[in-house]
């Protein structure tokens, strides 16, 4: 993919498990998780400008443009590489805010990868990952671009092979602030470490789930419904939840059976980010 005005994908991610295994002296939590991308997400387009402004043409309600991760990513890349060009960013938003699907992080990662090409910066993937980490813990994973077992604050990645799967992802009508979940006094922070080589699909749970369900009963309602159909988990810090199915038809049947007032989507798991190559 190349060229101005191309459509650049920013896929969702789900966490197949998420454990909190400790806490650093600076307060950051130490995590273990497996990230998988989905063939569903946001889309971005970039158009060049005649001035040096970085403009978000499609600001999100309640989010100042200067705080948007796409704008911050563009400024960061420009400051780091010495580029002086301006750009207008067009964001088609499909992933919910506070949904645990990595929407903002994915948008930032796609912005870094796209503008690195469009501005001819030539920054290698490792440099982009380090820039991304300053924007958010999940950003480097999207730039890394492969299903992976992530550790630390999300910066250490070990690629994993995952079986094909489709997912029904449900979207509770609440936005869950990540910081609120991590500062909860009842959050478990001492789950035993799993060596990456020992992890297998289906292992582990989500340590953030009990806190999110206590604070946001709608999340618990979605999990209860999904678990009547098989194993289900919350993704990230919530609010979105998912269940795995062997094929798309079965997942679509479950989607069609969602009760009134519940919404969701079906997506296929991806082994790698669409922009990885």
Question: Would you give an account of this structure?
Answer:
The protein is of the alpha+beta class and 277 residues long. The protein has two domains: 8-159, 2-Layer Sandwich (Ribosomal Protein S5, domain 2), CATH 3.30.230.10; 166-270, GHMP kinase, C-terminal domain (Alpha-Beta Plaits, 2-Layer Sandwich). It is built from eight helices and ten strands. Strands 1, 2, 3, 4, 5, 6, 7, 8, 9 and 10 form a ten-stranded mixed beta sheet that branches. The mean pLDDT is 95.
Point out poorly predicted stretches.
Answer: none
Radius of gyration equals 18 Å
Assign the CATH architecture of the largest domain.
2-Layer Sandwich
Q: Per DSSP, what share of the residues sits in E-state strands of 2 or more residues?
A: 25-35%
The description of the largest β-sheet is: 10 strands, mixed
Q: In percent, how helical is the residue content?
A: 25-40%
Secondary-structure-derived class: alpha+beta
Inertia-based shape: globular
Query: What is the terminal-to-terminal distance?
Result: 9 Å
Give the domain tally.
2
What's the CATH C level of the largest domain?
Alpha Beta
Number of beta-strand segments: 10
Mean pLDDT: 95
SSE order in H/E notation? EEEHEHHHEEEHHHEEHE
CATH topology of the largest domain: Ribosomal Protein S5, domain 2
């Amino acid at each position: 993919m190349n060229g101005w005005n191309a459509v650049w994908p920013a896929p969702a991610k789900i966490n197949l498990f998420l454990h909190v295994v400790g806490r650093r002296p600076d307060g950051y939590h130490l995590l273990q998780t497996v990230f998988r991308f989905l063939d569903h997400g946001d889309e971005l387009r970039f158009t060049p400008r005649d001035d040096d402004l970085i403009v978000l043409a499609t600001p999100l309600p309640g989010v100042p443009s200067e705080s948007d991760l796409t704008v911050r990513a563009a400024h960061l890349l420009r400051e780091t590489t010495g580029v002086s060009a301006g750009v207008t960013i067009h964001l088609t938003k499909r992933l919910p805010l506070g949904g645990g699907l990595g929407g903002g992080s994915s948008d930032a990662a796609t912005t870094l990868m796209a503008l690195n090409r469009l501005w001819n910066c030539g920054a290698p993937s490792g440099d982009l990952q380090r820039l991304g980490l300053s924007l958010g813990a999940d950003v480097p994973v999207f730039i890394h671009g492969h299903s992976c077992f992530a550790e630390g604050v999300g910066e250490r990645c070990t690629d994993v092979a995952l079986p094909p799967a489709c997912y029904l992802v449900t979207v509770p009508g609440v936005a869950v602030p990540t910081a609120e979940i991590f500062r909860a006094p009842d959050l478990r922070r001492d789950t035993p470490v799993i060596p990456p080589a020992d992890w297998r699909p289906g292992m582990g749970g989500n340590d953030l789930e009990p806190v999110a369900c206590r604070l946001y009963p709608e999340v618990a309602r979605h999990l209860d419904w999904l678990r009547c159909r098989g194993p289900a988990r919350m993704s990230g810090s919530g609010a979105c939840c998912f269940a795995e199915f062997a094929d798309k038809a079965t997942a679509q049947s479950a989607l069609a059976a969602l009760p009134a007032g519940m919404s969701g989507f079906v997506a296929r798991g991806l082994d790698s980010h669409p922009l990885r190559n």
